[in-house]
Amino acid sequence: MSTSETITRVYREAVATYGLAGVNRLEAEESAIATLIVEVRAGRLDIDMEAALRAQLRKADESDGRSADGMLRRIAAGDQPLTLADFDVVVTLGGGLRKTWGMLDPDVDLSAMNEIRYKNYRAARDAFHEFNSNVLAVKSMCSGYGTMLDAFEDGAFIPEAKGNAA
């Protein structure tokens, strides 16, 4: 089993231990990390440091993206004062291009950011419509079962059984 598969399996098992009550993300992560650290220290699991660092960089990039949205909102609303540190935030311009807020061209780059946001909005809207249709179909198939596993074990997901839920 690859490292990625092992991590996924441990995470799924950690969440599954909470059963019907579920668990918040942070607690699930902490539970999985506790198990994974034991495996790493025992030498049964190798961690790719470059991949781990890349994941942290992506997290920083996403965080800065949210900060950039906040900066735009603050400037538009006149919520001042701004500080020099505010202009270090990295923004996404599309096509993988990044700049700091301080280096943005107000005409060209803000227009590019707006176009990206609009494309993302349309994609999210379309994805929601498909997701909602799927939710309604699955709810119809599984109505009356206590859990999705109950529905599966009773054959609700077998094509010829559609519409024959308990």
- Secondary structure class reads mainly alpha
Overall, the morphology is extended
Major sheet: order of its strands?
Answer: 1-2
Q: Give the overall average pLDDT.
A: 91
N-to-C SSE string, H for helix and E for strand: HHHEEHH
Q: Report the C-alpha radius of gyration, rounded.
A: 23 Å
Q: How many helices does DSSP assign?
A: 5
* Main sheet summary: 2 strands, antiparallel
Please tally the β strands and state the result: 2
Percentage of residues in strands: 5-15%
Assign a percent range to the helix content: 55-70%
- Termini Cα gap: 38 Å
Summarize the structure.
This protein has 166 residues and is mostly helical. The protein is built from five helices and two strands. The model has no long low-confidence stretch (mean pLDDT 91).
Provide structural commentary:
The protein has 166 residues and is mostly helical. It has helices at residues 3-16, 25-41, 49-77, 108-142, 148-153; strands spanning 90-94, 97-100. A hairpin with a 2-residue loop joins strand 1 and strand 2 (97-100). Helix 1 (3-16) crosses helix 2.
